[in-house]
Amino acid sequence: MHSVVRPNAWVALKLPSGSTKVLQIAPNTTISLGKYGNVSSNLIIGRPYHLTFELQDKLPDENFSRLRVVPASELHAEAIAEEEAAGCSTPAAGAADAVISATDGEEFSLFDDKGNVVARSNHEVIDENARQTLTQDEIEELKREGNNAGKDVIAKLLLSHTALDQKTSFSLAKYKLLKTKKYIRRFQVLPIDVANFAHWQLEERDANKIMDMRAEMIGLVGCWGNVHFGGDDVLLEDPKASTAQGEEACLPVNQDLLQGRWLVVDDTCGLLVAAMAERMGVLYEDEGKEAEGQTEEQNGAAVEQAATATEPQELQVRPAVPEPVGQDNADTEMADASTTPVKRQSDGKPKQQKPRPSDFAIPYSQTNSITVIHGASQPNLSLLNYWGFDITSPNHPPHPLLNHLLNLTWLQLLKPELDTSYSTPPLTATPETLASWKPSRRGNFHRKRRRYARIRHIVDSTRAGNFSGLVCASTMDPISILRHTLPLLAGGAPVAIYAPTVEALAAVSDCFSVPRRTAWVSGNVPEIEGLSHEELERWEGNERFPLNPTLLQGVSIQTSRARRWQVLPGRTHPLMTERGGADGYVFTAWRCKPAEGKVAAKGKFKRRKVETESEAATPA
Amino acid sequence: MASTTRTAVSPFLDPGPRTKANSLAILQLSRDNLQPVYLQSPTGVHDGYAEGAVVNTRYGSFPHSTMLNVPWGSQIRASKVDTGSRGRKRKRGSGDDACREATGASEKDNEDSAAAANEDSAAGVKQAVADSSGFIHILPPTPELWTTSLPHRTQVVYTPDYSYILHRIRARPGSVLIEAGAGSGSFTHASVRAVYNGYPSEGQRKGKVFSFEFHEQRYHKMKKELSDHGLGGLVHLTHRDVYNGGFLVDGKSPEAEAIFLDLPAPWEALPHLSRRRPQSSTSADEQTEWVSPLNPKKSAYICTFSPCIEQVTRTVSAMRRLGWVDIDMIEIANRKLHTSRERVGLNLNFDRGVNNSARDVEEALTRLADIEARFREHAAKPRDGDEDMDSGDEDAVPAGKSSGPTNGSDGPSAEETSSGVPPWMEGRLITRGEPEIKTHTSYLVFAILPWSGRGG
Ligand SMILES: C[S@@+](CC[C@H](N)C(=O)[O-])C[C@H]1O[C@@H](n2cnc3c(N)ncnc32)[C@H](O)[C@@H]1O
Questions:
Q1: Which overall architecture, per CATH, does domain B24-85+102-141 show?
Q2: Region (Disordered) spans which residues (chain B) (predicted)?
């Protein structure tokens, strides 16, 4: 994945101003880089990621700007030149004092042909007069007349500000201008992976939407939740139930097959699910197969959309795609009609078709899956659109999440009998009756049956429990989440809960405090007397014991903060300012299986000594 | 090359529902006290114990037999062990024994008990008898648990750093990752979990870690550990000085897209991680074909991990000259927080951690008024001619009484306070940092090496 920019890929364009633009690269469109100019999308498609391009001036007979790949040596030229200058024993004359600063904090430096800094603008005193020497209009004018996209302007600007004798002794032919922020029309193309996307969403878009989840937190939650590839796909065999058969023909849940499944509560609009899917290898469309080289033919697909749109929800146009696997894709098709082996694609090419799965076929892998529990009737996972997955689309093209993402409501999990779609038995009809119906009615019939079978499978398999871990980033009270999810976790399964602020996590941790735990096992708790082991595992909680305090071990809260540094010759230090707001905290613990009956706490106590010894074994 | 017969999936990647013999498990003695152990089937008297192998801790003795084939996460009761001759042989503190026992078990594990595992010769093994003294929990191994319990041979990378690093260098299922040096294997375990997407069958490309270590003993220890952990087929460990030898394996490119260097001089290794022959190489090399260890069709992500700023300066300088872009230097500060109840008040019992001073102004007022009242009462009584009564000791006289009706033994029981609030819910819930924090681990330098689009 992410070898080259594919047609219609979502990418992040990093602009010279430092800001990022996230958009979909549709073929044959023009991408506006605002004041930096326009780029033709076809010049980016097929190129590797992370290259830095410079927009060239348009050639007289062309109506687009060609791109030049800026080599790394040029990107780093200033720093390298500075390093070399710093390496010299005697700094070049004038290098230090003939420095001026230009308008509002741009960074650029002028070097002579020996690599000495002649003028540098970013960290010296601003020369008020110099600032007035050129007007914005003049700059624009110069910019237009120059061949070399902005460089000449800056050089002139700089020179016009520099000490006079230098100006005369320093001809434009010899200068080497390096790295500017404002006038050089450079941009870099980055892939939309979880790290890049989350960074953009946090720093430039709407941090609220992702609950202020920083990269540090995404990493911690993923690791403490032990989220990883959960095994090769295991798909259940199609029961091939006839339309006359009802729920009795549905596939039963086979607990032994259920493995490597994670339970999730996500109020980050899907960022958490995306991060987990990335860790499990089910986020990217081309995951598992290296689909390079097959991009060309999709290029021609009719794609009409605003190239600058930034919300994927607004863009549902995609190139023609192959037959979706096992989704509600053909509501007006007869699922049992095996007489349509060939289907016309929208591109007009006939396509060989696999036999359509029956209504009760389960498309979900029994392994390596993510189960999302949500509070509204539909999950809000809208950010997954950036990875080509639209949870609301009934007609979805192939995507790994289709078979690995399961979702259900809290009602379906806890009181399935109150959920209509779970508790209403599926419709049945004999083939003859079915044949007598209009196609639309038939389509409806099949769709409802498919829906029933899937919901039933999701609910039953979730309630069967044995999850490998629980990961949360939710605005709901984590205590209530744990009350209902702890019974679903396998022994030893990790719990990792993210929260932007610490209070709610502290309250969870307090449910497992030593005094509370001690009281619980003391045998003097009237409310749990006589409860069976199973009843205790499903303890509903009261004020004194909101949770069964013996169900988690190793309860811990932590926070992490990345501090960013500038590394430049002689000027290495932490950044002066960074994003504030919520720091983010992670609660971690492991599900344990308390021994039945009364267990007394610690025995022998040679305490202090042993403790210090074992700690000494761990280097600080 | 560990392309032997396909062994079972590593317990790190799929521990299964229950503990197994000859497999790694992590014993949690207390919150931060973890101990790795390779569980052994009881095959007879072991090291003097009639119950077979036993782990001794200060929470009691735990025969392996009581920890085998139980659900992960189980709470295990201590057993009354029959030390037989052993009790006389050694009489050290149980704490030391626990440590020695665990390592002893891990070393013995592969040589003898692997063969004996299936025999299941329960004959001659004494059944363990539960002791009332204590318990531990048994957890499936994860990189996080391993990192805090592994035998240290070097400094290691801990979870706050590696979780961030793996995220930033895009170590994902299917990635090929280069790591040097392997050290104690902490980062190795975390990275193999990240890149794992199944065990490769012949000739298949799957997520894999190529790890390098030049210290011979560490190399051998790691090699054994990896195979004990079922990770041999997923980590390719090479004994080599990467400064001189580079990163090719059997002359071939690992085709890595993620790199982690935890070495004293990353800049010495960086030239090997180029796409084309680096300029600095000597002319003698020019004849031979130069092979890049990087994936020729993907951007390569790197992180170097260095404690000192001087190392960072040199690393970054080398990166700039070698074509790396998006160079980014980061330091991670991680803190653990402990929660507790802050109990302040005059009417609380004298538990540990209770601050018996006024909870608020009202409580202070009440007490002061009370003192005043007593004082006046006292003053109103006929005196025996002592005039300087009003100076000083106001508190001294009535203080003993003033701590009120709920002092000491006449206070509420530990189970319930007068207000009906159980003691564990009393006071304000607070969080505070751990007593000692790691303020610096290392500087993390990240960078990306794009590919040109022309196949290298
Ligand atoms: C700090 S340790 C790495 C710890 C490891 N990252 C972990 O998490 O356990 C550094 C290791 O690099 C090894 N090393 C140092 N220079 C090396 C070189 N030139 N080639 C290979 N290994 C090297 C050392 O022997 C040492 O084991």
A1: Roll (3.10)
A2: 79-122, 376-426
Report the relative pairing of strands A552-566 and A573-574 from DSSP bridges.
antiparallel
Cα–Cα distance measured from residue A381 to residue A387, given in angstroms and rounded to the nearest whole number: 11
Distance from A430 to chain B by nearest Cα, in Å? 43
**Roughly how many angstroms between the first and final C-alpha of chain A, as a whole number?**
39
> Which DSSP string corresponds to A509-551?
HHHT-HHHHHHHHTT--GGGTT--HHHHHT----SS-SS-TTS
Give pLDDT tens digits for A71-89: 999 899 888 888 887 765 3
Q: Domain extents for chain B?
A: 24-85+102-141, 144-335+442-449
Residue A61 falls inside a structural domain = yes
What distance, in Å, lies between the first and last C-alpha atoms of chain B? 28
Across the interface, which of B33, B174, B329 has its CB nearest the CB of A565?
Answer: B329
Pairing of strands B258-261, B300-306: parallel
Please judge whether B329 and A617 are an interchain contact, meaning their C-beta atoms are less than 8 angstroms apart: no
Q: What is the pTM of this model?
A: 0.82
- B74 CB neighbours in chain A (<8 A) are 491, 592-593, 595
* Residue reference for tokens 């633009």: A21
A619: its two tokens: 């280097």
CA B191, B194, B200, B203 torsion-angle sign:
negative
Per residue in B341-361, pLDDT (tens digit) is 998 888 777 666 778 889 899
The β-bridge relationship of strands A38-40 and A52-55 is: unpaired
Burial class (CB in 10 A: 0-12, 13-18, 19+), A524: exposed
Which residue do the tokens 């098709």 mark? A333
What's the pLDDT score for residue A284? 94
Q: In Å, how far is B381's CA from the nearest CA of chain A?
A: 48
In a domain, A417, yes or no: no
Alpha-carbon distance of A351 to A416, in angstroms, equals: 40
Range of the domain at A166: 1-83+109-192
Mean pLDDT of A174-190: 65
- What token pair was written down for B40? 């052994």
Q: How far apart are CA A261 and CA A463, in angstroms?
A: 13
Specify the residue for token string 């502290």: A506
Q: How many helices and strands, by DSSP H and E, does chain B display? A: 12, 15
Q: CA–CA separation, A238 vs A434, rounded Å?
A: 21
CA distance B94 to B96: 6
Mean pLDDT of B96-106: 36
pLDDT digits (tens, 9 = 90+) for B109-122: 333 333 333 333 44
Ligand 1 shell residues, CB under 6 Å: B 154-157, 180-181, 183-187, 212-215, 218, 241-243, 262-264
Burial class from Cβ neighbours inside 10 Å (0-12, 13-18, 19+) for residue A135 reads: exposed
Interface test with A, best of B96, B144, B340, B429 (most A CBs within 10 A): B144
- Residue from the list B77, B164, B337 with its beta carbon closest to the beta carbon of A215: B164
User: Superfamily for B144-335+442-449?
Assistant: Vaccinia Virus protein VP39 (3.40.50.150)
Query: Contact at 8 Å (CB) between A219 and B164?
Result: yes
Q: Tell me the CATH number at A182.
A: 3.10.330.20
Residue A120 lies in a domain: yes
3-state secondary structure of A446: helix
**Is residue B196 a contact partner of residue A229, using CB atoms and an 8 Å limit?**
yes
Residue A68 falls inside a structural domain? yes
Residue A311: count of CB within 10 angstroms of its CB: 11
- Residue B88: pLDDT above 80? no
Find the CB nearest B297 among A3, A76, A231: A3
Residue B160 near chain A (CB below 8 Å): yes
The Cα A541–Cα B124 span in angstroms is 46
